[in-house]
Amino acid sequence: MTPHAICVHQPGDATVLSYEPVDVAAPGAGEVLLRQTAIGVNFIDIYFRTGLYPTNLPCILGQEAAGVVEAVGPGVTEFQPGDRVAYAGVMGAYATHRLINAARLVPVPDGVSDELAAGTLLRGMTAQYLIKRTFPVAPGMTVLIHAAAGGVGQIASQWARALGAKVIGTVGSTSKAELARHWCDYVINYSEEDFAQRVREITGGQGVPVVYDGVGAATFEGSLDSLSLRGMLVSFGNASGAVPPFAPVLLSQKGSLFLTRPTLAHYTATREELLATAADYFAALANGMVKAGVGQRYALTDAAQAHRDLAARKTTGGIVLLP
Ligand SMILES: NC(=O)c1ccc[n+]([C@@H]2O[C@H](COP(=O)([O-])OP(=O)(O)OC[C@H]3O[C@@H](n4cnc5c(N)ncnc54)[C@H](OP(=O)(O)O)[C@@H]3O)[C@@H](O)[C@H]2O)c1
């Protein structure tokens, strides 16, 4: 089969996604040739498509996939042809085949399907660093997690609860509220309710020590208003748009708050961190702390529809494209 990929030549709406034949060379030093079996769709793909996150064009979109090693280049000792592997956070995933630096691959354990790895590794590793390393949750702590029915939200909520925290999750619809009730102690539909006010009620006026906010612009102020004194806003995404500039004194006025804007790449910067983060996520799946799933499947050629559904808040959990 001729390798194909979804390319973007100029930023824009989902119609700029173009399925095209591509050349894939033999792997060079340190590289692996991968035949991809399932590809993850993440919100960050939309940011790159629209130009919110700038990148060199033309590009092949996508950050995450699973597949089988077809060939290895000189110096690759960790992997061999036939190995099942996955990766997250490496541009160029919307393709049937690709070359990739072997140092960015992780082995996929038996018992984890290619679809599950491709559809949830990026979100699972994100949840891992957010709730265990950016602001570690602790037993008895009450935390607020936005978009709790979404990809990162589902995993982070389940995991935080398994670690002993009480989870307040926000969602945008009644049907998502029903879903999120399976893993949140309290669910707030922020399309209908003032979530900061509800958080105050739930916490007896105290507020929460941490808010994990991947929604961005629409929730920023309310997230600050949900925090207890010296609490931390972990602002990790822009699903509703980027948080606008603000004066740092706002953090003082709202309770000597902390704000961090983390990204997965900086929490998986070394090979050791990457392997440990992925292994911790796969262990959480294996021991039942987290039940992650792929909620939506599309043909690779239908990537535009996957983007439309994700942007229109129609999806829950992981999303995969199948080559
Ligand atoms: N910094 C990092 O390392 C990192 C890594 C991975 C993901 N992220 C971020 O985490 C967030 C979640 O990513 P995901 O891929 O798992 O997506 P997702 O949560 O499955 O989808 C985004 C959700 O955000 C909510 N949302 C609220 N307002 C929205 C709006 N105006 N437009 C679209 N969605 C809106 C929707 O849930 P409701 O309908 O329930 O409101 C939607 O389902 C994204 O912001 C993403 O960029 C960050």
Please report the first level of CATH classification, the CATH class of the largest domain: Alpha Beta
Specify the CATH homologous superfamily of the largest domain. Answer: Medium-chain alcohol dehydrogenases, catalytic domain
What hetero molecules are bound to the protein chains?
NADP nicotinamide-adenine-dinucleotide phosphate
Tell me what the CATH architecture of the largest domain is. Alpha-Beta Complex
Question: Ranges with pLDDT <50 over ≥5 residues?
Answer: none
The ordered string of helix (H) and strand (E) elements is EEEHEEEEEHEHEHEHEHEHEHHEHE
* Overall body shape: globular
Question: How much is the radius of gyration in Å?
Answer: 20 Å
CATH fold node name of the largest domain: Quinone Oxidoreductase, Chain A, domain 1
Total of DSSP H or I helical runs spanning 4+ residues: 10
Beta strand count:
16
Intertermini distance = 11 Å
Describe the oligomeric state of these chains in a short phrase: single chain
Mean pLDDT: 97
Helix content: 25-40%
- What is the domain total for the residues? 2
- β content, as a range? 25-35%
Describe this structure in words.
With 323 residues, this protein is of the alpha/beta class. The chain has helices spanning 43-50, 114-134, 151-162, 174-180, 195-202, 220-225, 249-253, 264-267, 271-286, 303-311, and strands spanning 4-8, 18-21, 31-40, 59-60, 64-72, 84-88, 97-101, 106-107, 142-145, 166-171, 186-189, 208-213, 227-235, 258-260, 294-299, 318-322. The chain is built from ten helices and 16 strands. Strands 3, 5, 6, 7, 8, 15 and 16 form a seven-stranded mixed β-sheet that branches. Strand 13 (227-235), helix 7 and strand 14 form a beta-alpha-beta unit. The longest helix is centred in the middle third of the chain and has 21 residues, at 114-134. The model has no long low-confidence stretch (mean pLDDT 97). The chain binds NADP nicotinamide-adenine-dinucleotide phosphate. NADP nicotinamide-adenine-dinucleotide phosphate (NAP) binds at residues 42-44, 122-123, 126, 147, 149-153, 171-173, 176, 214-215, 218, 236-240, 262-264, 311, 313, 315. Residues 12-321 form the Enoyl reductase (ER) domain.
